[in-house]
Amino acid sequence: MELSLARVDYLQVGVTAQKTMRLLPASGKKATQKVVVGDQDGVVTCFGIKKGEAVPVFKTLPGRKISRLELGGALNTPQEKIFVATGSEVRGFTKRGKQFLSFETNLTESIKAMYISGADLFLCASYIYNHYCDCKDQHYFLSGDKINDVLCLPVDKVKCITPVLACQDRVLRVLQGSDLLYEVELPGPPTVLALSSGNGGDSGEEIVYGTSDGKLGLTQITGTKAIPKWEIGNEKKRGGILCIDSFDILGDGVKELLVGRDDGMIEIYNFESADDPVLRHDYALSESIASIQGGCVGKDGYDEILAATYSGWLTGLTTEPVHREGGSGEELKLSQEMQSKISSLRNELEQLQIKVLQERDKYQQSSQSSTAVSSVPAFSVNDKFTLNKDDASYSLILEVQTAIDNVLVQSDVPLDLLDVDKNSAVVSFSSCDSEPNSNFLLATYRCQANTTRLELKVRSIEGQYGTLQAYVTPRIQPKTCQVHQYQIKPLSLHQRTHSIDQDRPMNTLMLKGQFSFAEIHSWVVFCLPEVPEKTPAGECITFYFQNTFLGTQLESTYSKGEGYFKSDNISTISILKDVLSKEATKRKINLNISFDVNEESVRHTLQLIHPKLEYQQLLAKKVHLIDALRELQVHEGNVDFLLPKYRSILEEADQLLEEYKRQPAHLERLYGMITDLFIDKFKFKGTNVKTKVPLLLEILDGCDQDGLIAFFDAA
Questions:
Q1: Bridge-partner residues for 409, per DSSP?
Q2: Do 516 and 360 form a contact (C-beta atoms < 8 A)?
Q3: Domain range annotation of the chain
Q4: Phi-psi region for residue 626, left (φ > 0), alpha (ψ -120 to 50) or beta?
Q5: Inter-residue contact 209 to 193 (CB < 8 Å)
Q6: Who's near 668: CB < 8 A, 6+ residues apart?
Q7: Does 615 or 30 have the greater pLDDT score?
Q8: Which CATH architecture has domain 13-239+247-256?
Q9: Which range (242-256, 633-647, 658-672) has the least confidence?
Q10: Chain-centre distance of CA 342, in angstroms?
């Protein structure tokens, strides 16, 4: 069955957070549903659609920003009571807009996630989970990492309260009361949870999750363990998943899975077979999808998908045909409807233009008076700085509620700017002095009109740490700019993982001294990404990491007064040793540092690097030959006389150039890593081998693995 969807923009509210828009239950079968949405101005707006126009039902006064909006009510009755989380307070409204609840929780932080089931209220701040029943405190749990979302399995099916927390450290934590029942390991950090088919499936135990790196999966949460059912990777390299809903948009009796991503993609997955879902339809909007719902909004009898975007647009993808089939009377009626709508929009636009001119004159007059006070317009920026496992680069996504004029990117550490296909901005580089100002990167992105979202990619060098700054200037008057800072950590290309291969040859760094558990944890947070800032509960903790560029690994175990760091890459141990010594010296803490170097680990690391080195050297050679081969082709008019390998280079020229362009300085980075490995190997022996580096580079140019290993052994 082919699906044809038409886009309709209904209304714009203020900037919206994740999961803050819902559809109220319909009064009858196929009747239109009311939409309720909460924005960051603290306003709850409820409206319906009549003759294509948004008709308000109620609108609350502004207040603190709304972080979540859920529907509730007694179990097995229509869920039509509206609950919003704002700060540390939960408010309840009837479908007519009357406030019946104002519950000030005992949370010291703002509520980040909320779920409602009957009289049970589940709330999460950054690390804290609280369960309330009839607004009375029932259970409490402190999570090991940040909580991104929460839900509870349906009580009418499972017969007990089973809350599930989606945590940043790539796990789902399943609770029983105030205790952890078990953990479920996931392939990425989960950002959103939803009950399968909206009710947990036949058993009520099935949960769909979406991750920040764009993966989607379903797992069954039983009383003793989790049973993974299916998982879909992010082959198309799309954005992270922010919202999920289940709705039968195809009308085939089976609910489809609706997915909203942070790059503006809306996806519809269909369960053609009983096992894995298949992507049936997708639609691209220009900004992130904060909430998604399936229902009937615009016209009786026509289902649609409603999305709330970051800047507050409520956009429908409706099954209602745009060009109706019928006689001339039907077409005339449609054209009259459209004419009146166009006319009213023109009038509204003219009034707005007059109002803007009046306000601009007013501002000019007030700014030139002797009592003038400068007013900086506030604007909201939604930013995300994450490490991509696939290509060992950092994605910086900047989203602004209004059009972006330009973004200036500055860094005090060496960084490579990589190409992004979706990026239409014009980039220009400025020369910078690295010596007096520690300026290594200065680039300006000039955006095209109406660009509200910009994605950049950078790759860092491990061992060199500092700050990346983005100066965001939107197209608003008077000109104003916001600065956002992102830390480039010493071991910036490492990513948290659930386990490591213990059979690899490992080097060990041991620290002992008069430091507290909180102090050594703060040093680890400084060195490595994806470590929770909050000091873990208990007396000892172990974290596992993998280097996304090389595939080497790191195990860090530490407690009060001691720390053990194991890695199969000696350079990782060397960086940790230098940085941890520096941090301890800053705090005047005396460290006793010892290490155990495994000679076999150097050979092992070289064997991991070599295939990448060989591939990049071959790519560079092919790219250098392209111009000469193309010249030959022009002169000779025929390339049949060339060897097959040269003909294949010509055939693949565009792909080779594209790949080479996407990975600037890749070969230099590999040379740098091998050089660091060579220097670090002998540094632990107390030998300075920097004079032998030119000889090492000559061997690298020859790309001989055995010769390279022999050089390392003989030096």
A1: 443, 470
A2: no
A3: 13-239+247-256, 386-488, 494-597, 601-714
A4: alpha
A5: yes
A6: none
A7: 615
A8: 7 Propeller (2.130)
A9: 633-647
A10: 39
